[in-house]
Amino acid sequence: LVDWWVARKMDPAAPASGTRWSRRTWLIVSLVSNLTVLGFFKYFNFFIDSVQAAMASAGLEASLPVLRIVLPVGISFYTFQSLSYTIDVYRGRLRASGSLRDFALFVAFFPQLVAGPIERAEALLPRVQHPRVFNLVVARDALVLMAWGVFKKLVIADNVGIIANRVFAMKDPGFEMLWAGVFAFGLQIFADFSAYTDIARGCARWLGFDLMKNFDHPYLALSPSDFWRRWHISLSSWFRDYLYIPLGGSRRGLPRTLVNILITFVISGLWHGAAWNFALWGAYHGLLLVGERTWGALRGVGRHPGRPRVPAWRVVPQWALMYVLVHIGWLLFREADAAMLWRDLTLVPGTAPLAERQAGLYLFLVAFTLSLPLWAHSLWTAWQGRSYSDRPVVREADVPTRTIVWQALAVGVMFATILVLRSRTSLDFIYFAF
Hints:
mainly alpha, globular
Protein backbone atom coordinates (compact mmCIF):
# COMPACT_ATOMS: atom_id res chain seq x y z
CA LEU A 1 0.00 0.00 0.00
CA VAL A 2 2.81 2.41 0.90
CA ASP A 3 4.75 1.71 -2.29
CA TRP A 4 1.69 1.99 -4.53
CA TRP A 5 0.75 5.35 -2.96
CA VAL A 6 4.33 6.65 -2.94
CA ALA A 7 4.81 5.79 -6.62
CA ARG A 8 1.70 7.75 -7.54
CA LYS A 9 3.10 10.72 -5.64
CA MET A 10 6.43 10.47 -7.47
CA ASP A 11 5.12 9.97 -11.01
CA PRO A 12 5.90 13.22 -12.90
CA ALA A 13 2.80 12.77 -15.04
CA ALA A 14 0.49 12.32 -12.08
CA PRO A 15 -1.47 15.37 -10.85
CA ALA A 16 -0.30 14.73 -7.27
CA SER A 17 3.41 14.73 -8.11
CA GLY A 18 5.51 17.58 -6.78
CA THR A 19 9.01 18.97 -6.92
CA ARG A 20 12.15 16.87 -7.11
CA TRP A 21 12.72 17.44 -3.40
CA SER A 22 9.28 16.11 -2.53
CA ARG A 23 9.72 13.14 -4.88
CA ARG A 24 12.97 12.30 -3.13
CA THR A 25 11.17 12.51 0.20
CA TRP A 26 8.53 10.07 -1.02
CA LEU A 27 11.29 7.70 -2.17
CA ILE A 28 12.83 7.85 1.31
CA VAL A 29 9.42 6.94 2.75
CA SER A 30 9.36 3.85 0.54
CA LEU A 31 12.93 2.86 1.40
CA VAL A 32 12.44 3.32 5.14
CA SER A 33 9.12 1.48 5.29
CA ASN A 34 10.38 -1.49 3.27
CA LEU A 35 13.77 -1.84 4.90
CA THR A 36 12.40 -1.33 8.41
CA VAL A 37 9.92 -4.17 8.00
CA LEU A 38 12.56 -6.41 6.39
CA GLY A 39 15.13 -5.51 9.03
CA PHE A 40 12.80 -6.17 11.95
CA PHE A 41 11.48 -9.53 10.81
CA LYS A 42 14.74 -10.86 9.43
CA TYR A 43 17.56 -9.25 11.42
CA PHE A 44 16.25 -8.19 14.87
CA ASN A 45 17.32 -11.35 16.71
CA PHE A 46 20.61 -11.46 14.77
CA PHE A 47 21.38 -7.92 15.93
CA ILE A 48 20.48 -8.71 19.54
CA ASP A 49 22.58 -11.90 19.54
CA SER A 50 25.56 -10.05 18.02
CA VAL A 51 25.37 -7.29 20.65
CA GLN A 52 25.11 -9.85 23.42
CA ALA A 53 28.13 -11.78 22.11
CA ALA A 54 30.16 -8.56 21.82
CA MET A 55 29.28 -7.59 25.41
CA ALA A 56 30.17 -11.08 26.64
CA SER A 57 33.57 -10.89 24.94
CA ALA A 58 34.17 -7.63 26.82
CA GLY A 59 33.31 -9.29 30.14
CA LEU A 60 29.82 -7.83 30.39
CA GLU A 61 26.78 -10.00 30.96
CA ALA A 62 23.42 -8.81 29.73
CA SER A 63 20.06 -10.43 29.20
CA LEU A 64 18.68 -8.76 26.09
CA PRO A 65 15.14 -9.25 24.79
CA VAL A 66 14.68 -11.84 22.04
CA LEU A 67 11.36 -12.10 20.24
CA ARG A 68 9.96 -15.25 18.66
CA ILE A 69 9.56 -13.68 15.23
CA VAL A 70 7.97 -15.69 12.44
CA LEU A 71 9.57 -14.78 9.12
CA PRO A 72 6.89 -13.83 6.56
CA VAL A 73 6.90 -16.00 3.45
CA GLY A 74 9.08 -14.58 0.65
CA ILE A 75 9.76 -11.28 2.46
CA SER A 76 13.24 -10.79 0.97
CA PHE A 77 12.04 -11.38 -2.58
CA TYR A 78 8.89 -9.28 -2.60
CA THR A 79 10.56 -6.46 -0.66
CA PHE A 80 13.24 -6.09 -3.33
CA GLN A 81 10.67 -6.47 -6.09
CA SER A 82 8.49 -3.71 -4.66
CA LEU A 83 11.50 -1.45 -3.99
CA SER A 84 12.67 -1.74 -7.59
CA TYR A 85 9.23 -0.45 -8.66
CA THR A 86 9.35 2.72 -6.56
CA ILE A 87 12.99 3.40 -7.47
CA ASP A 88 12.28 3.02 -11.19
CA VAL A 89 9.27 5.36 -10.92
CA TYR A 90 11.47 7.88 -9.10
CA ARG A 91 14.09 7.62 -11.86
CA GLY A 92 11.44 8.20 -14.51
CA ARG A 93 11.93 4.78 -16.12
CA LEU A 94 8.39 3.67 -15.35
CA ARG A 95 4.92 5.13 -14.97
CA ALA A 96 3.15 4.53 -11.67
CA SER A 97 0.38 1.96 -11.76
CA GLY A 98 -3.07 3.44 -11.35
CA SER A 99 -4.56 0.13 -10.26
CA LEU A 100 -3.87 -1.17 -6.77
CA ARG A 101 -5.05 -4.61 -7.90
CA ASP A 102 -2.53 -4.75 -10.75
CA PHE A 103 0.29 -3.59 -8.49
CA ALA A 104 -0.66 -6.11 -5.79
CA LEU A 105 -0.59 -8.92 -8.36
CA PHE A 106 2.87 -7.80 -9.51
CA VAL A 107 4.21 -7.88 -5.94
CA ALA A 108 2.45 -11.08 -4.85
CA PHE A 109 2.54 -13.08 -8.10
CA PHE A 110 2.43 -16.55 -6.58
CA PRO A 111 4.69 -18.69 -8.85
CA GLN A 112 7.84 -16.73 -8.01
CA LEU A 113 6.83 -15.14 -4.71
CA VAL A 114 8.67 -17.49 -2.35
CA ALA A 115 12.09 -17.80 -4.04
CA GLY A 116 12.17 -15.60 -7.11
CA PRO A 117 13.25 -14.71 -9.65
CA ILE A 118 12.98 -11.08 -8.55
CA GLU A 119 11.02 -9.42 -11.35
CA ARG A 120 11.20 -5.82 -12.51
CA ALA A 121 7.96 -3.90 -12.84
CA GLU A 122 8.80 -2.75 -16.36
CA ALA A 123 8.85 -6.41 -17.45
CA LEU A 124 6.00 -7.93 -15.42
CA LEU A 125 3.48 -5.09 -14.91
CA PRO A 126 2.65 -4.70 -18.63
CA ARG A 127 1.74 -8.40 -18.77
CA VAL A 128 -0.51 -7.89 -15.73
CA GLN A 129 -2.21 -4.89 -17.29
CA HIS A 130 -2.90 -6.41 -20.71
CA PRO A 131 -5.03 -9.43 -21.71
CA ARG A 132 -3.27 -12.77 -22.01
CA VAL A 133 -4.13 -15.54 -24.47
CA PHE A 134 -3.50 -19.23 -23.84
CA ASN A 135 -0.90 -20.63 -26.26
CA LEU A 136 -0.66 -24.40 -26.60
CA VAL A 137 2.93 -24.30 -27.88
CA VAL A 138 4.05 -22.22 -24.90
CA ALA A 139 2.09 -24.49 -22.54
CA ARG A 140 3.86 -27.57 -23.88
CA ASP A 141 7.27 -25.94 -23.51
CA ALA A 142 6.26 -24.85 -20.00
CA LEU A 143 5.32 -28.42 -19.08
CA VAL A 144 8.76 -29.67 -20.17
CA LEU A 145 10.39 -26.90 -18.13
CA MET A 146 8.33 -27.73 -15.03
CA ALA A 147 9.03 -31.46 -15.41
CA TRP A 148 12.77 -30.70 -15.61
CA GLY A 149 12.45 -28.59 -12.46
CA VAL A 150 10.59 -31.31 -10.54
CA PHE A 151 13.19 -33.86 -11.73
CA LYS A 152 16.07 -31.70 -10.51
CA LYS A 153 14.41 -31.19 -7.12
CA LEU A 154 13.26 -34.73 -6.32
CA VAL A 155 15.94 -36.82 -8.02
CA ILE A 156 19.07 -34.67 -7.78
CA ALA A 157 18.73 -31.97 -5.10
CA ASP A 158 16.99 -34.02 -2.41
CA ASN A 159 19.25 -37.07 -2.86
CA VAL A 160 22.53 -35.14 -2.77
CA GLY A 161 21.06 -32.98 0.00
CA ILE A 162 20.88 -36.07 2.23
CA ILE A 163 24.60 -36.62 1.65
CA ALA A 164 25.42 -32.99 2.45
CA ASN A 165 23.26 -32.98 5.59
CA ARG A 166 24.86 -36.13 6.97
CA VAL A 167 28.41 -34.94 6.32
CA PHE A 168 27.82 -31.53 7.92
CA ALA A 169 26.16 -33.24 10.90
CA MET A 170 29.39 -35.19 11.59
CA LYS A 171 31.49 -33.99 14.50
CA ASP A 172 34.95 -34.19 12.90
CA PRO A 173 34.81 -35.24 9.23
CA GLY A 174 38.13 -35.82 7.52
CA PHE A 175 39.31 -33.96 4.44
CA GLU A 176 37.85 -36.41 1.90
CA MET A 177 34.53 -36.76 3.70
CA LEU A 178 34.16 -33.01 4.22
CA TRP A 179 34.78 -32.06 0.61
CA ALA A 180 32.48 -34.82 -0.62
CA GLY A 181 29.81 -33.09 1.49
CA VAL A 182 30.73 -29.67 0.10
CA PHE A 183 30.56 -31.04 -3.45
CA ALA A 184 27.13 -32.52 -2.67
CA PHE A 185 25.94 -29.23 -1.18
CA GLY A 186 27.13 -27.32 -4.27
CA LEU A 187 25.04 -29.65 -6.42
CA GLN A 188 22.11 -29.43 -4.02
CA ILE A 189 21.88 -25.65 -3.87
CA PHE A 190 22.15 -25.29 -7.65
CA ALA A 191 19.72 -28.10 -8.50
CA ASP A 192 17.32 -27.03 -5.74
CA PHE A 193 17.23 -23.31 -6.52
CA SER A 194 17.21 -23.65 -10.30
CA ALA A 195 14.47 -26.29 -9.95
CA TYR A 196 12.23 -23.81 -8.15
CA THR A 197 12.97 -21.20 -10.83
CA ASP A 198 12.10 -23.63 -13.64
CA ILE A 199 8.83 -24.62 -11.95
CA ALA A 200 7.95 -20.97 -11.33
CA ARG A 201 8.76 -19.96 -14.91
CA GLY A 202 6.81 -22.88 -16.35
CA CYS A 203 3.77 -22.21 -14.17
CA ALA A 204 3.87 -18.51 -15.06
CA ARG A 205 4.03 -19.34 -18.78
CA TRP A 206 0.82 -21.32 -18.48
CA LEU A 207 -0.78 -18.16 -17.12
CA GLY A 208 0.64 -15.95 -19.88
CA PHE A 209 3.62 -14.45 -18.03
CA ASP A 210 7.25 -14.78 -19.08
CA LEU A 211 9.60 -14.56 -16.08
CA MET A 212 13.29 -13.84 -16.47
CA LYS A 213 15.89 -16.60 -16.55
CA ASN A 214 17.64 -16.81 -13.19
CA PHE A 215 20.45 -19.26 -13.98
CA ASP A 216 22.71 -19.72 -16.98
CA HIS A 217 24.72 -22.85 -16.16
CA PRO A 218 26.88 -21.18 -13.46
CA TYR A 219 29.18 -24.16 -12.98
CA LEU A 220 30.58 -23.57 -16.46
CA ALA A 221 31.90 -20.15 -15.35
CA LEU A 222 35.52 -19.29 -16.10
CA SER A 223 35.91 -16.30 -13.76
CA PRO A 224 34.23 -14.70 -10.71
CA SER A 225 32.42 -12.10 -12.83
CA ASP A 226 31.33 -14.83 -15.25
CA PHE A 227 29.90 -16.81 -12.33
CA TRP A 228 27.82 -13.85 -11.15
CA ARG A 229 26.51 -13.29 -14.66
CA ARG A 230 25.21 -16.85 -14.49
CA TRP A 231 24.16 -17.36 -10.83
CA HIS A 232 20.93 -15.91 -9.37
CA ILE A 233 20.82 -13.39 -12.22
CA SER A 234 17.79 -11.51 -10.92
CA LEU A 235 19.43 -10.81 -7.54
CA SER A 236 22.91 -9.96 -8.86
CA SER A 237 21.41 -7.58 -11.44
CA TRP A 238 19.22 -6.02 -8.70
CA PHE A 239 22.23 -5.28 -6.52
CA ARG A 240 24.13 -3.97 -9.54
CA ASP A 241 21.36 -1.55 -10.55
CA TYR A 242 20.11 -0.43 -7.14
CA LEU A 243 23.20 -0.56 -4.92
CA TYR A 244 26.49 -0.87 -6.82
CA ILE A 245 25.74 1.79 -9.46
CA PRO A 246 24.23 4.31 -6.96
CA LEU A 247 27.37 3.88 -4.84
CA GLY A 248 29.34 5.07 -7.84
CA GLY A 249 29.88 1.81 -9.68
CA SER A 250 33.14 1.90 -11.60
CA ARG A 251 32.94 5.60 -12.49
CA ARG A 252 35.15 6.98 -9.69
CA GLY A 253 38.45 5.21 -10.15
CA LEU A 254 39.71 1.75 -9.30
CA PRO A 255 40.03 2.11 -5.49
CA ARG A 256 36.44 3.33 -5.13
CA THR A 257 35.26 0.61 -7.53
CA LEU A 258 36.85 -2.10 -5.37
CA VAL A 259 35.23 -0.67 -2.22
CA ASN A 260 31.84 -0.56 -3.97
CA ILE A 261 32.21 -4.20 -5.00
CA LEU A 262 33.00 -5.28 -1.43
CA ILE A 263 30.11 -3.30 0.07
CA THR A 264 27.69 -4.72 -2.48
CA PHE A 265 28.72 -8.32 -1.89
CA VAL A 266 28.76 -8.13 1.90
CA ILE A 267 25.21 -6.75 1.83
CA SER A 268 24.27 -9.38 -0.73
CA GLY A 269 25.59 -12.05 1.63
CA LEU A 270 23.55 -10.69 4.55
CA TRP A 271 20.47 -10.62 2.31
CA HIS A 272 20.70 -14.43 2.23
CA GLY A 273 20.42 -14.74 5.99
CA ALA A 274 20.97 -13.15 9.38
CA ALA A 275 24.29 -14.81 10.21
CA TRP A 276 27.96 -13.88 9.95
CA ASN A 277 28.77 -16.85 7.70
CA PHE A 278 26.58 -15.30 4.99
CA ALA A 279 28.41 -11.98 5.35
CA LEU A 280 31.72 -13.87 5.15
CA TRP A 281 30.51 -15.69 2.01
CA GLY A 282 29.58 -12.36 0.42
CA ALA A 283 32.92 -10.82 1.39
CA TYR A 284 34.74 -13.85 -0.06
CA HIS A 285 33.06 -13.47 -3.44
CA GLY A 286 33.62 -9.72 -3.27
CA LEU A 287 37.35 -10.32 -2.77
CA LEU A 288 37.42 -12.71 -5.73
CA LEU A 289 35.89 -9.98 -7.90
CA VAL A 290 38.27 -7.39 -6.45
CA GLY A 291 41.19 -9.63 -7.36
CA GLU A 292 39.84 -10.16 -10.87
CA ARG A 293 39.20 -6.44 -11.39
CA THR A 294 42.67 -5.51 -10.04
CA TRP A 295 44.37 -8.11 -12.23
CA GLY A 296 42.40 -6.85 -15.23
CA ALA A 297 43.46 -3.26 -14.51
CA LEU A 298 47.11 -4.31 -14.30
CA ARG A 299 46.78 -6.08 -17.64
CA GLY A 300 44.92 -3.18 -19.22
CA VAL A 301 41.57 -4.97 -19.56
CA GLY A 302 38.52 -2.66 -19.89
CA ARG A 303 36.25 -1.79 -16.98
CA HIS A 304 33.32 -3.81 -18.28
CA PRO A 305 34.72 -6.99 -19.79
CA GLY A 306 32.30 -9.40 -21.37
CA ARG A 307 32.40 -13.11 -20.85
CA PRO A 308 36.02 -14.18 -20.72
CA ARG A 309 37.70 -15.15 -23.95
CA VAL A 310 40.52 -17.49 -23.11
CA PRO A 311 42.75 -19.70 -25.25
CA ALA A 312 41.44 -23.22 -25.70
CA TRP A 313 44.29 -24.75 -23.70
CA ARG A 314 43.36 -22.63 -20.66
CA VAL A 315 39.62 -23.34 -20.60
CA VAL A 316 39.71 -26.58 -18.58
CA PRO A 317 42.24 -25.49 -15.90
CA GLN A 318 40.54 -22.09 -15.56
CA TRP A 319 37.14 -23.77 -15.24
CA ALA A 320 38.52 -26.22 -12.66
CA LEU A 321 40.03 -23.40 -10.60
CA MET A 322 36.76 -21.44 -10.65
CA TYR A 323 34.80 -24.55 -9.69
CA VAL A 324 37.05 -25.10 -6.66
CA LEU A 325 36.85 -21.42 -5.63
CA VAL A 326 33.05 -21.46 -5.81
CA HIS A 327 32.91 -24.55 -3.61
CA ILE A 328 35.21 -23.00 -1.03
CA GLY A 329 32.56 -20.29 -0.94
CA TRP A 330 29.83 -22.92 -0.45
CA LEU A 331 31.71 -24.17 2.62
CA LEU A 332 31.61 -20.62 4.03
CA PHE A 333 27.91 -20.42 3.13
CA ARG A 334 26.97 -23.71 4.81
CA GLU A 335 29.19 -23.81 7.91
CA ALA A 336 27.82 -21.42 10.56
CA ASP A 337 30.28 -22.30 13.36
CA ALA A 338 33.49 -20.24 13.13
CA ALA A 339 35.63 -22.80 14.97
CA MET A 340 34.44 -25.64 12.73
CA LEU A 341 35.00 -23.50 9.64
CA TRP A 342 38.62 -22.82 10.61
CA ARG A 343 39.12 -26.52 11.28
CA ASP A 344 37.58 -27.41 7.91
CA LEU A 345 39.78 -24.95 6.01
CA THR A 346 42.97 -26.26 7.65
CA LEU A 347 42.34 -29.95 6.96
CA VAL A 348 44.90 -31.77 4.83
CA PRO A 349 44.21 -34.84 2.68
CA GLY A 350 45.29 -38.33 3.69
CA THR A 351 45.11 -37.86 7.47
CA ALA A 352 41.73 -39.50 8.05
CA PRO A 353 41.41 -43.28 8.60
CA LEU A 354 41.35 -45.33 5.39
CA ALA A 355 37.73 -46.40 5.88
CA GLU A 356 36.60 -42.76 6.16
CA ARG A 357 38.57 -41.77 3.06
CA GLN A 358 36.94 -44.60 1.13
CA ALA A 359 33.52 -43.54 2.41
CA GLY A 360 34.21 -39.96 1.29
CA LEU A 361 35.19 -41.17 -2.18
CA TYR A 362 32.05 -43.31 -2.33
CA LEU A 363 29.80 -40.37 -1.40
CA PHE A 364 31.55 -38.18 -3.97
CA LEU A 365 30.93 -40.79 -6.70
CA VAL A 366 27.27 -41.15 -5.68
CA ALA A 367 26.75 -37.38 -5.81
CA PHE A 368 28.60 -37.12 -9.12
CA THR A 369 26.47 -39.91 -10.64
CA LEU A 370 23.28 -38.17 -9.55
CA SER A 371 24.56 -34.91 -11.06
CA LEU A 372 25.23 -36.34 -14.53
CA PRO A 373 21.92 -35.00 -15.97
CA LEU A 374 22.91 -31.49 -14.82
CA TRP A 375 26.33 -31.71 -16.48
CA ALA A 376 24.85 -33.20 -19.65
CA HIS A 377 22.27 -30.41 -19.85
CA SER A 378 24.87 -27.68 -19.28
CA LEU A 379 27.33 -29.08 -21.82
CA TRP A 380 24.58 -29.66 -24.38
CA THR A 381 23.34 -26.10 -23.92
CA ALA A 382 26.85 -24.69 -24.24
CA TRP A 383 27.36 -26.68 -27.44
CA GLN A 384 23.98 -25.62 -28.87
CA GLY A 385 24.52 -22.01 -27.80
CA ARG A 386 20.94 -21.58 -26.53
CA SER A 387 18.92 -23.00 -23.67
CA TYR A 388 15.72 -24.92 -24.35
CA SER A 389 13.86 -22.54 -22.07
CA ASP A 390 14.92 -19.60 -24.27
CA ARG A 391 13.39 -20.92 -27.48
CA PRO A 392 11.34 -18.29 -29.31
CA VAL A 393 7.59 -18.71 -29.29
CA VAL A 394 6.32 -20.14 -32.58
CA ARG A 395 2.90 -20.75 -34.06
CA GLU A 396 1.22 -24.13 -33.60
CA ALA A 397 1.48 -24.88 -37.32
CA ASP A 398 5.25 -24.38 -37.23
CA VAL A 399 5.90 -27.08 -34.62
CA PRO A 400 7.07 -30.34 -36.24
CA THR A 401 5.38 -33.51 -35.07
CA ARG A 402 8.73 -34.98 -34.08
CA THR A 403 9.25 -32.06 -31.65
CA ILE A 404 5.96 -32.84 -29.92
CA VAL A 405 6.89 -36.53 -29.75
CA TRP A 406 10.31 -35.73 -28.26
CA GLN A 407 8.69 -33.42 -25.70
CA ALA A 408 6.24 -36.14 -24.69
CA LEU A 409 9.03 -38.72 -24.40
CA ALA A 410 11.19 -36.33 -22.35
CA VAL A 411 8.40 -35.61 -19.89
CA GLY A 412 7.50 -39.30 -19.65
CA VAL A 413 11.10 -40.33 -19.00
CA MET A 414 11.56 -37.63 -16.36
CA PHE A 415 8.43 -38.57 -14.45
CA ALA A 416 9.21 -42.31 -14.69
CA THR A 417 12.68 -41.57 -13.30
CA ILE A 418 11.14 -39.49 -10.52
CA LEU A 419 8.94 -42.43 -9.49
CA VAL A 420 11.95 -44.75 -9.31
CA LEU A 421 14.79 -42.55 -8.04
CA ARG A 422 13.12 -39.78 -6.06
CA SER A 423 14.38 -39.20 -2.55
CA ARG A 424 12.24 -40.75 0.17
CA THR A 425 13.26 -37.87 2.43
CA SER A 426 11.50 -34.62 1.57
CA LEU A 427 13.67 -31.50 1.90
CA ASP A 428 12.39 -27.92 1.75
CA PHE A 429 13.62 -25.67 -1.02
CA ILE A 430 16.79 -24.08 0.35
CA TYR A 431 15.87 -20.53 -0.63
CA PHE A 432 12.56 -20.74 1.26
CA ALA A 433 14.66 -19.69 4.27
CA PHE A 434 15.93 -16.49 2.65
